[in-house]
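anyone seen this seq b4? input:
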Amino acid sequence: MRPANAPLCLIPGTTHRSTLRIMQPTWVYKPVTSITAGAPVQLQVLGHGIQTDSWPCWLTGVQHMPELNRDPPRERPHRMRVVDADTLEINSISATGRQPRGGELRYQPPVDLTGCDVEMHLFDRPGGATLMTLGLGTGLTITGPGTIERVIGANQVIPPTASWYWLEVRYPDGTEHRYWEGPVTIGDA
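predicted toks r here
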């Protein structure tokens, strides 16, 4: 598997906070059984299986409200809030006065990160010297299924020669996957 090339821009003296999602390659397809005509819009999707708020999801085939439809993976996903095991909410969209119905929820389930270790390294160049390392408890946190939060604090010294990074996950069975890598840009403080 090839890592995603994701540029990273860091500004010294400011806090960099980002959420990274790791999804399985297979897709889950669930029928939307009803859509509440209110604000924010809520969808009934029996046993949707989403455990984490803001998990990327797409909707297709919704009638009478085309703005809910997103073509995966070409279009940006919705960020769903989990109301309960059968209900999802899209806070940024109102269905007040509308009569949407039907459709299908699509998403890639999260990778299980239970017992995993996570490391990120900043380098002076690809394959070069390590200038800075983040790990669990030191800038990286597993916050839920398939979810890693990365925080580089305002007081952390960012090496000015950093130009490349990678982030790897080490699974309990010893398997290591490099999920992200890319150029580092150091902005003006």
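Residues 4-22+112-186 form a domain with the Immunoglobulin-like fold (CATH 2.60.40.10). The mean pLDDT is 96. kinda curious what u guys think
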